[in-house]
Amino acid sequence: MRTSIATVCLSGSLRQKMRAAAAAGFDGIEVFEQDLVVAPETPEHIRDYAAELGLTLDLYQPFRDAEGTEEQLFQDTLRRVEEKFRLMNRLGMDLMLIPSNAGTATVDDDAVVASQLARMADLAADYGIRLAYEALAWGRFVNDFEHSWRLVEAADRENLGVCLDTFHILSRQWSTETVPDIPGDKVFFVQLADAPLMSLDVLSWSRHFRVFPGEGGFDLVDFMIKLLAGGYSGPLSLEIFNDSFRQTRVHRTAVDALRSLIWLQDRTARTLEASTGTTTNVSRATARIGELTRLPGAVVPQGITWAEVRGQETEQVEMLLSHLGFNHRGRHTSKPVQLWEHGDARVVINEEPRAQDAPSMASLGFEVQHDAAAAAHASALMVPEVPRVTREGEQPFPAYLAPDGTEIFFCPPQSAGGDRWLTEFSWPDHLDVAARRRPDPETDHDLPLITGIDHVNLAQPKHHYPESVLFYRAALGLTVQPSQDVPGPTGLVSSQVVRNESGSVRLPLNVAPDLGSEPEVEHIAFACTDVVRLARRAQASGLRFLPIPHNYYEDLRARFDLPDAKIEELSSLNLLYDRDDRGEFLHFYTQTVGSLFFEVVQRLDGYGGYGAPNAPVRMASQYTHSLLSR
Ligand SMILES: O=C(O)c1ccc(O)c(O)c1
Ligand SMILES: [Mg+2]
């Protein structure tokens, strides 16, 4: 379907916004009146520039405070709107948005409102203009889309229709069952907005927190199906008021925006293809699947093949790993990279000389069924590729850059040769590559206690957080869990997990408060089969644990009624504890090196969380120790 974006979504001047929309690949734009009023160009210039860029000017908006007023005021409204019709003629535009009156309405009478809409439409017809009436969620008398449609129906003018804006509909939780009942050709325009689920007055929620589809909590796929079923065939447009998008770089935001519409169309098509029921809506919408933009292949990673740490002076990282029982498995034949391994957990340490960087997370290798398909999928979503040099004989992996700066590699499964890269590391003399094998429980008495990577916690740049959510959802096919706020000593950290269904890939995304020059900490959590045993060994070998204060253990006793011996054991090993309705969780943290630390976790009986109640204890202890180490 055609795509469009309101200029209010983007930063910069009107020309910059137009250029970015065109460069990202949008078909058209909604001209926000404010952007035009402050622009130095004449309307004719804007019209020509749009033509030059190949953009259509789809909607002029908003014309406020229009209907539901006393006749005297309405006379002035007609004068005002006629001026705008002349302006639209100069711009070469033919569709104007009329939001329901939220400011000057005094007449709560549908007959009066319908007749005023009809009179505006008749005047618009003289200028070849059509009007789309939109129910604002906070409209004084008209605030639900069914009401706006009844008024449009009553006014009964060919050039008068409705504009459906998902924010106004879904924020008020209006039922969307009747969306398909509005004839497709009377829906003049559709604005798609997502938003995080919040309990906030709708006006503030709308003006500051809207996000692109896939970045919030609204069910836009369901809305799309009803829209298609109703016969709408106009553009899918984005109208996102968001404090961050107003300040982020315009080209990057425009790409994020178009990515959301590509993802939404593909997700809608997939949902239709997968639906087994034969409701009228589904079959009508299914008949139109061909109109939706599709993505090649489907990607859901099955596991994390490696986590890469990069920086200078990585000895301390090596020390932590070695105390956690990791083995140094060799150095890369051509790169300044080493591989550490414990069970199926692999950490790559990259000592690439980059200006004085302290160790930090660099990349994640994801195991996917088809790496080429995953790459094509990411490219179709306009995710930037990471340029890489692969020498002859080395295993090439497609690599993409996540919005948070993490490099994402796609690796084929081990069974399909996905572990060929391991042979690029030369092993210390006493280890023979051929002797590398999985432990045999019959004969191995010392099984690895760590089995793999349980989760990787990634710090998110505040203003690009919505973009990250969509990236992990769309490019990696992960599912988004509800977000939680964790109080830390320097601010509130908002945390949201993205994961695959089986839980073999879990990425808690953390948005930290603005800390100025403090590096955001990230961590790799290893899954362990016996965390008490591992902690004992690590303690004996001298691991630098993150110390946990005694108050925490007293609180634990009160909360969970654990026996004294258990509390004593946890406390002596700096272990933390949590429980959910399924099972228990035991974990400990290492001290931080650079902007990175490690965690070891043990999930008992299907515990599903991440020890969130313990995160404030961790952050407070890290804060204390970073102050002490200064
Ligand atoms: O917040 C507003 O005023 C506003 C204006 C125009 C719209 O289309 C809209 O959805 C909201
Ligand atoms: Mg709108």
Brief characterization of the structure:
This protein is of the alpha/beta class and 630 residues long.
Give a verbal description of the structure:
This protein is an alpha/beta fold. The protein has two domains: 3-291, Alpha-Beta Barrel (TIM Barrel), CATH 3.20.20.150; 303-432 and 447-628, Roll (2,3-Dihydroxybiphenyl 1,2-Dioxygenase, domain 1), CATH 3.10.180. The protein is built from 18 helices and 25 strands. Strands 17, 18, 19, 20, 21, 22, 23, 24 and 25 form a nine-stranded mixed beta sheet that branches. An eight-stranded parallel beta sheet has the order 3-2-1-8-7-6-5-4. Helix 4 runs parallel beside helix 5 and helix 5 crosses helix 6. It is elongated, with a radius of gyration of 29 Å. 3,4-dihydroxybenzoic acid is lined by residues 61-62, 97, 99, 134, 136, 165, 206-207, 239.
By CATH, the topology of the largest domain is: 2,3-Dihydroxybiphenyl 1,2-Dioxygenase, domain 1
Ligands: 3,4-dihydroxybenzoic acid, magnesium ion
Alpha-carbon distance between the two ends: 57 Å
Task: State mean pLDDT (0 to 100 scale).
Answer: 94
CATH superfamily of the largest domain: 2,3-Dihydroxybiphenyl 1,2-Dioxygenase, domain 1
- Structural class, judged by helices and strands? alpha/beta
pLDDT < 50 stretches? 432-440
Largest sheet properties:
9 strands, mixed
Shape: elongated
InterPro entries: DSD, Glyas_Bleomycin-R_OHBP_Dase, Glyas_Fos-R_dOase_dom, IolE/XylAMocC-like, VOC_core, Xyl_isomerase-like_sf, Xyl_isomerase-like_TIM-brl
Function: Catalyzes the conversion of 3-dehydroshikimate to protocatechuate (3,4-dihydroxybenzoate), a common intermediate of quinate and shikimate degradation pathways.
GO molecular function, one term: metal ion binding
EC number: 4.2.1.118
